[in-house]
Design brief:
The protein has a single domain, classed as Vaccinia Virus protein VP39 (Rossmann fold, 3-Layer(aba) Sandwich). The protein is built from seven helices and seven strands, in the order H-H-H-E-E-H-E-E-H-E-H-H-E-E. The longest helix has 14 residues. The chain is globular. With about 210 residues, the protein is α/β, with parallel strands linked by helices. Strands 3-2-1-4-5-7-6 form a seven-stranded mixed β-sheet, with helices on both faces. The N and C termini lie far apart (about 55 Å).
């Protein structure tokens, strides 16, 4: 009973972009470790054209040149909040599975904290479209909550309150992504108290 009430409260928070955004920053340690890793990929690529799929509140927009960034999410409330935070960046409310994309594709496609909201079939379809929108020779960067064995108590609490119901183990994440595109590099790390798995994929030049 108590667990159900707490979960409903967390779900209600997720429906309020500003509240969920600021509350989630606390256990994430302001996303410092994730931002550091994304910035390192950005620097390796130079000045990439970036597509941030499932951008939510636009937390990572600040890492990129506004003229080269497009954040996309299906939730209009989160897109409105992201635009209010980053008025110089571009954001679009759209579904990647039906969006045709932009000419020449993107140098970097970021999928961060999206797939753990999706079952395997939906996650695979999402990844296929992310791969489609990555230009040949470009980079697809996937970062997701990971279920460690054994999990820490703090991670168990955060994952219980998380709005996503498909937090996978490391082998399951690698199997899901590698079925769509080869993984060039992967890493498990902790941001704040939250464990993540990063998978860097390079799209071959045809």
């Amino acid at each position: 009973m108590i667990r159900a009430v707490i979960r409903r409260f967390a779900d209600r928070l997720a429906e309020t972009p500003a509240a969920f955004h600021w509350l989630r920053k606390l256990p994430e340690g302001n996303y410092r470790e994730t931002k550091r890793r994304i910035a390192a990929v950005r620097d390796d690529l130079g000045a990439p054209r970036v597509l941030d799929l499932g951008c939510g509140a636009g937390e990572y927009a600040e890492l990129f040149d506004p003229a080269l960034y497009l954040g996309m999410d299906i939730d209009p409330g989160y897109i409105a909040f992201a635009r209010s935070r980053h008025p110089k960046h571009r954001f679009a409310c759209a579904d990647v599975t039906t969006w045709s994309g932009e000419e020449n594709g993107f140098d970097l496609v970021l999928v961060n904290g999206v797939l753990h909201h999706l079952g395997d079939a939906e996650a695979s379809a999402f990844l296929c479209n992310a791969h489609r929108l990555t230009r040949p020779g470009g980079t697809l960067l996937v970062i997701e909550d990971v279920r460690l064995d054994p999990p820490t108590f703090a991670a168990r609490v955060v994952h219980f309150l998380d709005y996503g119901d498909h937090i996978r183990t490391l082998p399951r994440w690698q199997a899901l992504v590698s079925a769509i595109t080869p993984i060039a590099r992967s890493e498990t790390y902790v941001s704040g108290i939250c464990p993540y798995h990063l998978m860097l994929c390079s799209k071959p030049v045809r």
